[in-house]
From TrEMBL:
The gene is trmA. Keywords: Methyltransferase, S-adenosyl-L-methionine, Transferase, tRNA processing. One of its GO terms (molecular function) is rRNA binding. Belongs to the class I-like SAM-binding methyltransferase superfamily. RNA M5U methyltransferase family. TrmA subfamily. S-adenosyl-L-methionine binds at Q185, Y213, N218, E234, D294. GO terms for biological process: tRNA methylation. Its EC number is 2.1.1.35. CDD domains: AdoMet_MTases. This is tRNA/tmRNA (uracil-C(5))-methyltransferase. Dual-specificity methyltransferase that catalyzes the formation of 5-methyluridine at position 54 (m5U54) in all tRNAs, and that of position 341 (m5U341) in tmRNA (transfer-mRNA). It comes from the Bacteria. GO terms for cellular component: cytosol.
């Protein structure tokens, strides 16, 4: 992980630059004025990953700025959550005091939540033995965290292998299980703003919702409550399992989740080939009025773009404005951008999250 350029004094200007860049990308599509959602200036990132660098007989949290051989030692990390900052020195003191914890430890990963939960993953270049398990169990209890040890061919879980989050959308609290290693939104405060924006833009519907790339159900939970029924798809097994738990835990019963990629769903809807994973799902019975997509950085392929063009409304969240613009070049043949938003998930970087609503012309 590269060392960030943390500069709160420059934040407002950086956000304005991002907004101008997004306006330029959306200008060919006659997008309305941007709705801009800023980030906390510090303590906003709920995930962090550090390599460990050994010097003078001790291991230190390290990041790298271009040169992979020249570490930047990290004692505090103001872009990370306050929980991560509180845990960092206590974890370091623990491994410095314990050979069982420190021997061949090379990486540490933190996952925290707005709800206050924390999961720490320790990665090793050696097998994990009984001495490690005893020391790690005592550490997890001392820090009040779940802890996972990883080594070649080993994954040892102490506590839970997920963190628990609670996000509030339109006054309702939604509970989420966030598995270790699965994707979660890094900026919890901005994630809540994204969810509330999507919920408001979705509106109360009397037809059905189709969602592609649903992950652990981050958007599924609030958006499904706005539709008659929802069909959601995701290809990652760990994310599917988390999403199924999250749907049940929140009492959302109008949603069917299937483990399919966007490309496979396109084939199913086009009748190219059947899928056993869709057994019992009556696809023709759905009346999809809105399709929600939150694709990876590469955006949607042309076939998926053609698929979503079938539906009256396309609600699109993007982590890459360049591929969003590429997709809009195709989608704008049939749809008009009627809402547009910038969500500053990644302060002090050039990255941004954006959202658009497209409605059929």
């Amino acid at each position: 992980m590269s060392a960030p350029a943390f500069n709160p004094a420059a934040y407002t200007a950086q956000l304005a630059d991002k907004a101008n860049r997004l306006r330029e990308l959306l200008a060919p599509f006659a997008a309305p004025e941007l709705e801009i959602f800023d980030s906390p200036r510090e303590y906003y990132r709920l995930r962090a990953e550090f390599r460990l660098w050994r010097e003078d007989g001790q291991r230190h949290y390290a990041m790298f700025d271009g040169d992979k051989r020249t570490p930047v030692f990290i004692e505090e990390f103001p872009i990370a959550s306050q929980r991560i900052n509180a845990l960092m020195p206590r974890l370091k003191a623990a491994w410095q005091a314990s050979d069982a914890l420190s021997f061949k430890l090379f990486q540490v990963e933190f996952l925290t939540t707005l709800a206050g939960d924390a999961l720490i993953t320790l990665c090793y270049h050696r097998p994990l033995d009984d001495a490690w398990h005893a020391a790690a169990s005592a550490l997890a209890a001392e820090l009040n965290v779940s802890l996972i040890g990883r080594a070649r061919g080993q994954r040892v879980v102490i506590g839970r292998d997920y963190a628990e989050e609670t996000l509030t959308v339109a006054g309702r609290s939604f509970r989420y299980r966030q598995p270790e290693g699965a994707f979660t939104q890094p900026n919890g405060e901005v994630c809540q703003k994204m969810l509330n924006w999507a919920y408001e833009v979705m509106g109360e519907r009397d037809d059905d919702l189709l969602e592609l790339y649903c992950g652990n159900g981050n958007f599924t939970l609030p958006l499904a409550s706005r539709a008659r029924r929802a069909l959601a798809t995701e290809i990652s097994k760990s994310s599917v399992n988390a999403a199924l738990h999250n749907l049940a835990d929140n009492g959302i019963s109008n949603t069917t989740l299937v483990r399919l990629s966007a490309e496979e769903l396109t084939q199913a809807l086009n009748g190219v080939r059947p899928f056993r994973r869709l057994a019992g799902v009556d696809l023709p019975s759905y009346e999809f009025g809105t399709v929600f997509v939150d694709p990876p950085r590469a955006g949607m392929d042309d076939d998926t773009c053609r698929l979503v063009q079938r539906f009256p409304r396309i609600l699109y969240i993007s982590c890459n404005p360049e591929t969003l613009a590429q997709n809009l070049a195709l989608l704008s043949e049939t749809h008009q951008v009627t809402r547009a938003a910038l969500f500053d998930q990644f302060p002090y970087t050039h990255h941004m999250e954006s959202g658009v609503l497209l409605e059929r012309r």
